[in-house]
Amino acid sequence: MKPFITDDIFAAYLKCETKAHLIAIDTPLPPHQIHDWQVRLAADYKTECITRLLSANRDHLCYDGTPSVGDLLRHTYKLVLNCTIGDDTLQAHVDALQLSPAGSTPSTYIPVLIVPHDTVTHADKLLWHSTHWPLQQYSGYRHRTGRSFTAFHNVPPR
Fold this sequence. Notes:
Helices cover about 40% and strands about 20% of the residues. The protein is of the alpha/beta class and about 160 residues long. It has one domain. Strands 1, 2, 3, 4, 5 and 6 form a six-stranded mixed sheet that branches. α1 packs antiparallel against α5. The longest helix is centred in the first third of the chain and has 24 residues, at about 35-55. About 20% of the residues are buried.
């Protein structure tokens, strides 16, 4: 069964209620060259950021995809990439989950949202916070949302 609310629908809703409704009912959106260019640009940027995340975590175990609940609860991985979490009602795709620094109590995963623009917008923050509920439902423990907003933005090219 397709989830009722996804992060794509929520992100579209933050910009336009009608677009969110059309995405929710699987209405094909008309092709648009600028939109296609923006999608490619965001994908290239995300690839660069993930490459940097991986290079910073060479010594640690990383996972690509959605790990089991047990692995999340045991904090098996320091970094989880391209994770989709949620249930039949609410689902979110997280660019990365990063284990909180050693010594922080309690130790939790912090969602990482990669944004391809210079500043973090209010909509970006809402989208980032919206990942906490599905993560809580998936893993079974409460995540603190008072932590700093974790995002890559304006990463200069190498």
